[in-house]
Amino acid sequence: MAFTLGHNTPLADLMVISPRKQHFIIDVKGQWAKSPWILKRKRKRTELYYVLALVPPTETNRFFILSQKIANKLVQRSRRKRPGQQWDGFPFRSVGEYENKWKLLPR
User: Has this prediction a pTM greater than 0.85?
Assistant: First the structure.
């Protein structure tokens, strides 16, 4: 695994090689409150994954693992429900089924 230079690297935060030698990248998004997840649009990449981290000050940390395909579907669903929305993302509650789904990452 290698770290990128954070905000200076627009695509992802981590470059990873799985135990089976599959290369992929992870974009980490963190927040301390149950607010909407904001994601910038990126061109489609099969090797891009998101780790959404909820790090509240007085509760246990929570992690949600999504492929870019899943994240894009959530963004599209949110846009359909809120046509005037000025940002790309989706409500916090929409990722519940992806909590601790580390198995979604390449092996």
Answer: yes
